[in-house]
Amino acid sequence: MTTHGDAVGPSALSAAPAATREPEQVSPDGSAGKKEQVSSTTADAADPTDRTETAVPRQPHPEPDPGESAPEKRPADLGEADARTTTPPATPSTALEVARPTTGVDRLADVLGKLRTAIGETAYPLVMPSAQEAQRIGSALVTQLDDYLVPRLARLDAPLLVVVGGSTGAGKSTLVNSLVRAPVSTAGVLRPTTRSPVLVSNPADLPWFQQGQLLPGLVRTREPSNEATALQVVSAPALGAGLAFLDAPDIDSVVDRNRKLAAQLLAAADLWLFVTTAARYADAVPWELLTTARLRGTVIALVLDRVPPEAAAEIATHLQDMLNVRDLGGAPLFVLPETRLDGQGLIGEDVIGPLHDWFGRLAADSNARSAVVRQTLDGAIASLGPAVAGLADAADEQARAAKALGDRVTAAYRTGRQTMADGLRDGRLLRGEVLARWQEFVGTGEFLKTLENKVGQLRDRFVSALTGRPLPGRNLQAALESQLVTLLRGIAADAAEQAYAAWQAHPAGAALLEPGLQRPADDLPQRADRLVRDWQQWVLGLVRAEGAEKRVVARGAAYAVNGAGLAVMIAVFTSTAFIPTGLEVAAGAGSAVAAQKVLEAIFGDQAIRTLATQAREDLLLRTGKLFDEEAARFTDRLAAVGLDEEPGTRLREAAAAVETARTELALTGSTT
Ligand SMILES: Nc1nc2c(ncn2[C@@H]2O[C@H](COP(=O)(O)OP(=O)(O)OP(=O)(O)O)[C@@H](O)[C@H]2O)c(=O)[nH]1
Ligand SMILES: [Mg+2]
For residues 346 and 355, what is the distance between their CA atoms, to the nearest angstrom? Predict the structure, then answer.
C-alpha cells in the first residue's frame, strides 16, 4: 500500500543536479527545448502540425538492449505479454536464462531494487529536526519507486501516462473528458470535485493499466469512487492507443489527502499536463511543482484554460514570461478560451483541437513517446541521488545523535564510578558509625582476641547472650554495610539525575525519557544491599583462603576470619595499606597500630596490602556492574530504536550504484 506517501516535494529535490540536467522538454515530435505556444485564439500561433511533420527527433532513439522489450510493441500485444508473464512456461529454460547477458536495463532495475530496500529499511526513529522530513521523503521515494520507476523501467514500451494536474476548478476533468470525447470523469461545481483519480485509455491499453504494476497501491475500480486509494480505470475508444490520461485531484487542495494523492500521481507521470486558469496561473504551489519537474527533467505541457478571449494575448504573454524566467520556456503552452460546453459538458472540438491533435500525434509516434518516457524516467532516476544524499545525512545524524546520547549516559555513570573509587580512598566511609564501631572493635580488644583465636566462638556468643551486647564485629560489619550502601545509592541517584538532565537537553533524548529514569531503579536499594553483603562474603572467603594457606587460621576458626576480614575491609576504605594516618588518633592509635601489627604479623605486611587491593578491586567491579545496569536503563531505550552503525553509507552506496547504472544505460541517449 503506497497511497499514504507524499510525492517528493520541492524541498527534497532542491539539491537536484540542475546544472547537469538541462531542463529539456521533449515535444511530441521528439524535439527538445523548443517553445511551443499554441493558442486557438491567437491567429499567429504556430501550427504544431507543421513542426511535427518537419521536426527530426533531437534525441536519438537508443537501440533497444538485447533483453529489453521492443519499444514498438503495439498495445494490442501488451495483453499477450502480460499473459506470458503471469503464466510461466511449463519447463522454464533456466540454462538459457542464466546464459542471457545482463542488460543495462536489468542492471539498473537491480540496483534500483537495492536502493528501494535501503531507503525502506532506513529509519529515523530519534526525534531530530531532520527526521520527520527524511521520513516523509524516504516514504515518498519508496512510493515513487514502486508506483513508477520500477514498473516503468520494466516496461519501457508500456503506454505513456499523462497526469493532468492543477488547482481545483481549473477544468481538469472537463479537459480530460473533452480530449477523449466522452464524459468519463465527473466535472462539477463543488470544490474540489475529483477526489479519486480517473485513468482513461484506449481499450487496447486497458489491460496494462488495470493490471496494477503501475501505481500498485491504488485499487482498480470500474465505477466512480471517492476513495483516495481507488483508481477508476475507464476506456475511451476515441482516444488513440499508446497514451492515457489520468485526471488527478487538485494539487493545492484544502483536502489533505487530495494534495498528497495529487503529488503521488504526478510522481508517477510520464508527462505532466498542468492546467491553470487566468485567475490561478500565478499561484505559488503550481510553480513549486513545476520547478521540481524542471529540475527533474520531467516532460511538462501546460494549458491556460478558460481564458477570456479579450485577455488571452496579454495573459498568455505574461505566463510565458513567467515560464521563461523559471527556465520552463520550452514547455508547450496551450491557451484555451472560455467557451460554452456542449450537452455532454465537453469543450467543442474546434477549441480543444490543437491540444487534442498534439496528443494525437504523440500517441501515434512511438519514437516521440519513447523519448518522453525516457526523459522523464531518466530525470526521475537522476534526481534520486541528491534526494537520497539528504536521507543519508539525516540517517547519519541519527547515528551521531544516538552516539551522543550514549556518551552522555556513559559520562554520567563514569563519574559515578570515579566517585565510588574516590569514596573508597578518601576515608569518608571511616567516619561516624563505622569509626565508632571500629574503635569499639579494636578498643575493647575484641579484635585481637578474634585474631588470636583464643576465644571460642561459642563462649563469645554465650557472653554476648548473657550481657545482651551484640558482637562488636557484627556491629562493625553492619555499619560498614550501611555506609557502603548509602554511598552506592547516593552515587546512583546522582548519576541518574545527571544522565536524565543530559538527555533532556537533547531533543532525541527528551523524547526517550520517562519520569522514572530521573531516579535509580526501584529495586536499587535491595540490589545495593545484596551487592555489599556478597562482597563482604567474598572478602571473608578471600581471607579464609589466604589464612589457610598461611596456616594461621585454624580450620573452623570462623571468628578469626571474620575479624581479619573486617580489618581488610577497613583497609579497603583507606588510601594507605591499613589504618589511615588521619584516623589513627581518632581510632586510638595504640590499639589500631597494635591491631595492624598483629594482622601483619599473621598475614605479612604485603599480604594485607594485597588482600585490601584485591578486595577493593572486587568491590569496584561489583559496583561498576551495578552502575552498568543502571546506565542500561537509558542505553536499552536507545538500543530499542534499532539504529545501524553507519546507516548513511548504505544509502550513499546504493544511490551511487543507481547513478552508475543510469549513466551506463543512457536512457535519453546521452550519458550526462
Ligand atoms: N463554460 C465552461 N465551463 C467549464 C470549462 N471547463 C470547466 N468548466 C466548468 O468548471 C467547473 C469545474 O470544472 P472541473 O472540470 O470539474 O474542474 P477540475 O479542475 O476537475 O476541478 P477539481 O476536480 O475540483 O480539481 C465545472 O462546473 C465545469 O463544468 C470551460 O471550458 N467552459
Ligand atoms: Mg476534477
Answer: 14
